[in-house]
Prior knowledge:
Layout: E1 4-11, E2 14-21, H1 26-33, E3 52-55, E4 58-61, E5 74-76, H2 89-96, H3 106-119, H4 125-131, H5 143-178
Parallel strand pairs: 1-5
Antiparallel strand pairs: 1-2, 3-4, 3-5
Amino acid sequence: MNERVSIAxxxxxxPAEVSFAxxxxxxxxxxxxxxxYGTKHGCELGECGACAVLLDGQPVxxxxxxxxDCDGRSVTTVEGLVEDGRLHPLQDTFxxxxxxxxxxxxxxFLVTAKALLDEHxxxxxxQIKDALSGNLCRCTGYQQIFEAVEAAIERSxxxxxxxxxxxxxxxxxxxxxxxxxxxx
Length: 184
């Protein structure tokens, strides 16, 4: 039963090869073999959501997934939400709005909310509640968590508008420089 297995997978956008005891869950492989500690041990029964990660873009409870079943798959943990050294808007708003108090449940909420926003960029409050219903928090009472997800949606929309406006302004400026001048 202590037979070791080796798999190749993508973790947080990077290829990884890992060898581990075949009985280990994805949670144990992430924490014990890949040294990714953001994903938390919670109930280990699939009831609390603290161990949630994205497996091929879908939220799963890593305590219920065998590591051997992840060969050739893509896993995103809370560490993988950072892009170009910048926090994901969800991470920013969770910090800004007090949605992360003790922080133990936060990684599971963040990856689950990211999956929701990837699928539904403008969810309703009810859709947010439904998507996060498998994640338990003992500290916040959930209101700040829902508000943080809504604030992340708003910030992302503003950032997209800014990017579009910036590209438009840049194009107009470039085109103006390329236009022939009436003056010699």
